[in-house]
Fold this sequence. Notes:
The chain is of the alpha/beta class. Helices cover 31% and strands 24% of the residues. It contains ten helices and 17 strands. Strand 3 (54-60), helix 4 (64-76) and strand 4 (81-86) form a beta-alpha-beta unit.
Amino acid sequence: MREFTARMGVKLAPHGKTTMAPQLMQEQLADGAWGITAATPAHIFAYRSIGIPRILYANQLVDPVAINFVLEELARDERFEFVCLVDSIATIDILTEALRARGRARPLDVLIELGIPGGRTGVRRVADAIMLARHLQATAPLLRLRGLEAFEGIVGQPSTDATLAVGKLLQNVVETSTVLCKEGLLTTPQPMISVGGSAFFGMVAERLRSCAPAAEIILRSGCYITNDHGMYEQAQRAEAERGQLTLSAPFQPALEVWAYVQSRPEPGLAILTLGKRDISYDIEMPIPIKWSRRGTRTVEQLGAGCRIASLNDQHARLLLPDQHPVAVGDRVGLGCSHPCTTFDKWKYIYRVDDRYTVTDLIVTLF
């Protein structure tokens, strides 16, 4: 990822919510990340507790407790940098009211968010974004408009329609940025544009770098750190086939959850000691990929014809060929589609080498 961002001339503020692991966030910063992205007040509190110096809050800041905390941190630590999103006059008024109540305070940096019809947050039209930018001028010096933000991942899994929707969103971002610069509505000479989750970041980097060459482009891909065995792997393969993503070394899935076979009650069925409480299932079922026979350390590929049919809280129904040798007491390794909702099920996660020897312990802050 570092090679990709350097070659494309973009920066990375990975979403910390993927792992919520201080150790991994610090490693990302040491490896050149611009900052860490947050999505909730709890993330902000956690990040500051471990000394994260630059936070991109990819959300509207409306919680009064969170607003006061951010303003106190900005006053306490002059090196702390924080930027959040606005998509309405109501949000702007809430922030300016809090800043005025504090008297003399550091300005709060904001990005105008653009969204898509039927999507999530963000203004739907370029004209609305320009209106907000003009309204923000009246709030100076309390609020500073740094640029624009959007999240393209809301369009769903990669498809022709999704790609077209992302293209339209990026077109709106570029058009809005051009008008903001032309009218002098930004408080900094270089506009900040933050787009790019983990599914379309190649397309985002390519389009924005070519259409907004003067902008400071910040991706927010968080799942690159482990990738997955499903949605993101498929998305990156599709981007590579379109020529929009060229990685010097393709990402490898690095997150697995292992379970025991506790029962073989029927031919073609194994029951595993793993369920909804242990691994993500919000995008698709876990993907069985490997196994290890009882009493050995040898890891083998599970083979074709194996899939998870359903999950209970702590059980999984693994369908496999009738004559498959998997037996009670063996271990099965599963990959996931969407790492975020697997990480949040574990307080401790092992880091292992290629022989599955534990080399480190990662602690999460969920």
